[in-house]
Amino acid sequence: MRRIPIVPVTEPPATLVYAPAKGRGTVWALEHRFNRDQRESFDDGWGTLEQAALEEPLPIGTQVLEEHVKTILAGNDSPDIGFDLSINPYRGCEHGCIYCYARPTHSYLNLSPGIDFETRIIAKVNAAERLREALSARNYTPLQLNIGSATDAYQPVERRLRITRSVIEVLKECSHPFSLITKSAGVERDLDLIAPMAERRLASVYFSITTLDPALARVMEPRAAAPQRRLRAIETLAKAGVPVGVSVSPVIPFLNEPELERILEAAREAGATSAFSIVLRLPWEVKPLFLQWLQQHFPERAERVMARLRDMRGGRDYDATFGRRMTGSGLWAQLLRQRFEKACARLGFNRKRVELDLTQFQRPAKRGDESPRQASLF
């Protein structure tokens, strides 16, 4: 039985080019930084590696693993992120975006940030239950809450499991405001919950649009909704009265960076009213994955892309310093920021995030509590 070549090494293969798999951002089983043992591919003299690289790859299936979590709310103390709490109903993301800064989090599960991140999805099946417990606690104070900040809350498995919907149902019940960011049109399925909350200033939605080029999107974020489908979803939500923003992120020099103004124009025409943008980040294992992908799909531009990124990162591939990690620094970062600001001003984008109302929060019922409002007074 033929199997797709999955390469468990820590550096991109130097001599072999492994064919990309349809619908996957990478086939590389990159070892993570917590591994105690290291493995490398070995040619036994029979041309095994070359033969494997030439074979037609079989589709790589997705495995969904259920997890019963102890907590669902994650606090944020990063000064350059505009929310206080986050909920991620899933670990890993089937969208397969090669640039995803959340890929290294799979290392904590002893899984590869490469192929495992997009094929081994962890579903937090008791997310709504844990959220209800957290919000009903006497010492809980409502804060700015975002859904899907690390991995997409509307990735394909959500159609079946509906964990994100169950989370929003709890938030709606207790009038807790939230923002949500996604690359999926699946958010339309929950418009019956989101639209009434938006009318009360309790919900806003942001779409990440990196390119308008379907061919580029197909290799850069293979299982996310097509760019035009995301624009239609923006229009649908905007017409339903939901405040919609656009994130042109990440900006990658010489790949999607030339489209910056066009993306903003298309999103504004579709109904988006606010916008923000982040320069490509390459923390931890994201760097070798992106480098291998770049050499594979855009070898003629790879050196230019990385040279420009280093210009914006003080000569390094990545600068994790707060205040610079999202925007970069130096001349090219300033020019990119000026382009973005001028385009936003011309198009009438609101540069501030939608202000949501925290005052309407009412503590939800605990399981088995028949009089939640009465209990919340004590």
From TrEMBL:
Amino-acid biosynthesis keyword on record: no
Domain Radical SAM core: 77-316
Transmembrane segments: none
Assigned keywords, A-Z: Iron, Iron-sulfur, Metal-binding
Alphabetized SMART domains for the sequence: Elp3
PROSITE patterns referenced in this protein's UniProt entry, alphabetically: RADICAL_SAM
A Pfam family it matches: Radical_SAM
InterPro entries linked to this entry: Elp3/MiaA/NifB-like_rSAM, MJ0683-like, rSAM, rSAM_sf
Alphabetized SUPFAM superfamilies for the sequence: Radical SAM enzymes (SSF102114)
Name the record gives this protein: PA0069 family radical SAM protein
